[in-house]
Amino acid sequence: MNTRILYCRRLDAKKIDGQKVIMPAKNIYHISVATFLLFALLGCQKHETIEPDSPPTETGELIAYSFQPGTAGDIHKIYTINSDGSGNKQAIFATIGLNHHDWSPDGTKLALVGYMGSTNSTWSIHTVNADGSNLTRLTFIDDVHDNEPSWSPNGVQIAFSSDRSAAEHREVYVMKADGTDVRRVTNSPGNYTAICLTWRPLTQ
């Protein structure tokens, strides 16, 4: 069975006068693992970035990605696009920036990060229906960075990383999908920090 890998391609950042860094544009691609045929799904302009998250859902091969505008003061937005490059559209209309998302196992919801406050100093975990409705905030601690939500395989829990225990030091937390029963599950030693979490089944 043929499979595909979804990924971003970007140019290296450049420095101007040894100081200013130009954020590179990112484009979304997918590549056939069996045939190595490359398909460009979406491109963007300099200073704008797009980042896909999670594999396509089983309902219509839909891909979600975060569009990060290059205009100062504009907010991150969640878009969806079909795996053949058609149907590109903004999926969620919100007054806060949205990023770092993960599909629920059944493809009906996204868990994602919402940037709160005038300076985006609070990152909170939210969920939203796949059609963009019912954006719901799940975590409520101000001035912390709750990040990288990841659904459990059965859709019952959401894991996320957070610096709520100590600034610049993230640990992994798990909560029910409705935001209740939040508990810390890692205790990283020294200067280590817990990031890039994902669920995997236990092996016997």
Question: What are the main properties of this structure?
Answer:
17 strands; four-stranded antiparallel sheet; mainly beta; single chain; 204 residues
Catalogue the unreliable spans.
Answer: 9-26, 30-42, 44-48, 54-59
**Tell me, what's the shape?**
globular
Give helix % range: under 10%
What is the first-to-last residue Cα distance?
Answer: 26 Å
- Strand percent estimate: over 45%
In total, the number of strands is 17
> H/E order of the elements?
EEEEEEEEEEEEEEEEE
Number of helices: 0
Spatial order of the strands in the main sheet?
6-7-8-9
Radius of gyration: 18 Å
Mean pLDDT: 75
Structural category is mainly beta
The biggest sheet amounts to:
4 strands, antiparallel
Multimeric state: single chain
Write the layout of secondary structure elements.
Layout lengths: L3 E7 L3 E3 L3 E3 L3 E7 L5 E5 L6 E5 L8 E7 L8 E6 L6 E2 L6 E7 L5 E8 L5 E8 L6 E2 L8 E6 L5 E10 L2 E8 L6 E2 L20
Antiparallel strand pairs: 1-4, 2-3, 4-5, 6-7, 7-8, 8-9, 10-11, 11-12, 12-13, 14-15, 15-16, 16-17
